[in-house]
Amino acid sequence: MNAIRAHEFGDPDVLALEDVSQPEPAADEALVRVHAASVNPIDWIVRRGEFDDPIWATRPWIPGWDLSGVVESIGSDVETLSPHDAVHGMVRMPRSGSTYAEYATVPADEVVRKPASLDHVGAAAVPMVGLTAWRALFEEVSVGPGDRVLIHAAAGGVGHVAVQLAKEAGATVVGTASGNNERFLRDLGVDEFVDYRIERFKAVVDDVDVVLDGVGGDTLERSAEVLVEGGDLVTLPVEPDAEQRDRLRREHGVETHWFSVEPDAAVLGEIDALVDEGRVEPVVSETYPLAEAAAAHDESETGHVRGKLVLDVRAESDA
Ligand SMILES: NC(=O)c1ccc[n+]([C@@H]2O[C@H](COP(=O)([O-])OP(=O)(O)OC[C@H]3O[C@@H](n4cnc5c(N)ncnc54)[C@H](OP(=O)(O)O)[C@@H]3O)[C@@H](O)[C@H]2O)c1
Questions:
Q1: Segment 250-281, tens digit of pLDDT
Q2: DSSP tag of 53
Q3: What is the spatial distance between Cα 39 and Cα 79, in angstroms, rounded to a whole number?
Q4: 259, 233 in Cβ contact below 8 A?
Q5: Based on CB atoms within 10 Å of each CB, which residue in 50, 54, 91, 304 is the most buried?
């Protein structure tokens, strides 16, 4: 089968399309013919060697955690899936998911039926960003009616789903992005928009109950200043250390949260129900054939993707 592999960590050109042997499912796994695999920042963070730890990637490494495809065969213990089922999920996180390939084995309890309303490209876009947004808003904190939520990087993968989930929960949503994403975010439901390139959100936003920070660094620090006393700051990019958490609590009275997203089939099923009801919609701004995974990483690494990038794996193998 064709797969994207890296024999070393580094620039996007370490990603090469290679002919590799098809993986065999273990007793509790399924073999999935991958139709689409989405690109997430963690894919290129690991590719760069920033997590040079065997938990994340042994070499040669096949990148990717999100996939949508069709079950080809199942291991002897699998009772929940059958061949021909269309499934999607974020698999094996943080161990290698290896979804940038024509076939991938997946733990049967980490995938669910693909939402009927989405094609495989759309379905591959959902799992990691959906699970992250859900956990941030409803497990780390519990966003509900009347809450005022500030979402940084609102136009990105996690952000654009988080905007929709927070609105579904009855919150008032403030989103930050550059001006060319204002229409996009207003259409998704943001109540207030801040163009971070022309104004500092600190000057125009206050009394926020929850911040979801997909940017980090200085944005994280400044976010503490717009939260109400006792507010919650969920940051995604980098785990804050104890000193920073203590300081933000002491100086601003806010609680800082960070987590590492994990597979959760039950939550993915809940997100999919919202998708099928038309209440949450993943937005795919561009697709690439599998062979052009390096170009997809180049684009993702700009930090300015709207919604999601997806590798359309079948498009290439049928070409
Ligand atoms: N801890 C976890 O488990 C976990 C899980 C998932 C993701 N993450 C992390 O969360 C972050 C976001 O992930 P993602 O998938 O949403 O990334 P992404 O899709 O690549 O985010 C791109 C978006 O960021 C926006 N952006 C860039 N700089 C900004 C700024 N200064 N202020 C506001 N918006 C800005 C861009 O909007 P413009 O083009 O308008 O600038 C773009 O739409 C990444 O660091 C990722 O690694 C962590």
A1: 999 999 999 999 999 999 999 999 999 999 99
A2: S
A3: 30
A4: no
A5: 91
- Nearest Cα residue to 208 out of 178, 188, 228, 184: 228
**What does the alpha-carbon distance between residue 301 and residue 163 come to, in Å, rounded to a whole number?**
22
Element (H or E) spanning 3, and its range?
strand 2-5
The number of angstroms, rounded, from the C-alpha of 48 to the middle of its chain's C-alpha atoms is 18
> What structural domains and CATH numbers belong to the chain?
2-126+282-317 (3.90.180.10), 129-257 (3.40.50.720)
What's the CA-to-centroid distance between 215 and ligand 1, angstroms? 6
C-alpha closest to that of 63 among 288, 315, 221: 288
Protein residue closest via CA to atom 2 of ligand 1: 260
pLDDT digits (tens, 9 = 90+) for 88-132: 999 999 999 999 999 999 999 999 999 999 999 999 999 999 999
Rounded to the nearest whole angstrom, what is the distance from the C-alpha of residue 63 to the centroid of ligand 1? 19
